[in-house]
Every structure is written in C-alpha cells, then in structure tokens.
User: What shape does this take?
Amino acid sequence: MTSMKKAALILKTLLSLWIVYHIIVIVIMPNAGGYLGRVTSRYIAPYANIFGVNVGWNFFSPDPAHTMYIRYMVYFNNDSGEDEKEPIEGYFPAQKNQRNDSIFNSRELYVMRFMIINPKHLKYLFGPWLCRQYPGATSVDMEHVIETVPFLDQVVMKKTEAVSSMSDELQFSAQRYKCGSGEDEVDL
Assistant: This one.
C-alpha cells in the first residue's frame, strides 16, 4: 500500500510540474521575440514546437519605436556659388530626442511616416516649405534619419555603456532641393 501511495505522489508531482511548465510555455511563447522569450527559448521552444504553442499573438506591449527625424542643411550662396552666410543645420522635429506626448508631437510623427513612404515627399513638399522658412536660402539638403533602439539583451550585456552609444543612426533617404527652382508637387 505504501508503494501505491508513493507512486501516486510521484505521479501527482510530475503532473503538477508538467502543468506549471506548460503554463510557462503558454505565457512566454506568444512573445518569443522578447527578452524573456530569447533567454528561455532553448528550454521551451522545442516543447512549444511539438505541441504547436509557438505562435505569437502579439498581446504584450510592443518594442519601443525608433526615433525618426529629418536632418537638414540650409545653404545661402550667391550667384557665383560662394557662401553668403553660414549654412544652418536643423532638425524636424526640433526636439528630436525628447519625449513629448502633446498633440503636436503626434502630428510630427505622422509627418515622419508620410515622408518615409516616398523619398520624393522630402524634395517636393518639405524642401519648398524649408525654403519659405529661411528667406534667402538657395538650396536645402535633407535626409530622413532613423535612430534604432538597442535590444534589451544587448543593453544587459553591455551594462557599462550608455544606451545612446548602442543606438545606430541609419540614413534612410536624402534629397536636395534648390530654392526658387520651380520644382513642385507636380512630379509626385
């Protein structure tokens, strides 16, 4: 009789451990690309693949968005091509690395997404606008820049480095617009 009790106890313990393991797999695998999923994948991914619970549902909060902005240089040249005054470097939005949840910031984010859809938007829409903002400008160089957010495990491994130094700056598209050239949105 004691051997039956031991066998029942062992069976209950194994079943309980399997249920706990299965629940852990169900909770972690929908976000397998997240930090916890990547760290534990060698222990739970084979099991999840066998039973088909390896499908992501994306119900966890998303990764932070990359910072997007437009870097521009405004040039003021005379007829012979010499600088009349110092070029102006600027950014749109002006507070490119500061978080601001105002309604204007949301509009600026939509502008960034609109500009990235088609690089001609920079030249034919944003270029003329910049020329109007800087009277006397002769040309504008613009580039769409994306600063990536490093992965959490990369930050954990390099604890002594600043997060900003692990970020990559990617130039997505670049355009030059000559102010007063008559180019407009007809070519869009």
Notes: Residues 2-28 form the longest helix (27 residues).
